[in-house]
Design a protein that fits this description.
about 70 residues, 3 helices, membrane
C-alpha cells in the first residue's frame, strides 16, 4: 500500500497540522516553555511533510490514462 492509495495519510497529516498549530499557538499565547512551542512546530512540519509526500506520489493524468487504456 502506497501513500496515494489510502486516505489515511491525508487525515493523519491534516490532524497533525491542526493539532501542532493549536499546541504552538496556545503555548505561545500562554508564555509556556519553549519546548511546547518547538514541539508544536515540529508536529506541523512533519504533517506538512507527510502531506507533501502523499501528493507527490499521485500518478500524473498521463500515467492514469495509460493504465486505463493499456490492453
Amino acid at each position: 500500500m502506497s501513500l496515494s492509495e489510502s486516505p489515511l495519510p491525508y487525515v493523519v497529516s491534516l490532524a497533525g497540522v491542526v493539532i501542532g498549530l493549536a499546541v504552538l499557538l496556545v503555548g505561545e499565547a500562554l508564555g509556556a516553555i519553549d519546548a511546547l512551542v518547538v514541539g508544536g512546530g515540529v508536529v506541523v512540519l512533519v504533517g506538512v511533510g507527510v502531506l507533501t509526500a502523499a501528493v507527490a506520489m499521485h500518478p500524473t493524468p498521463e500515467e492514469m490514462t495509460e493504465e486505463t487504456h493499456s490492453p
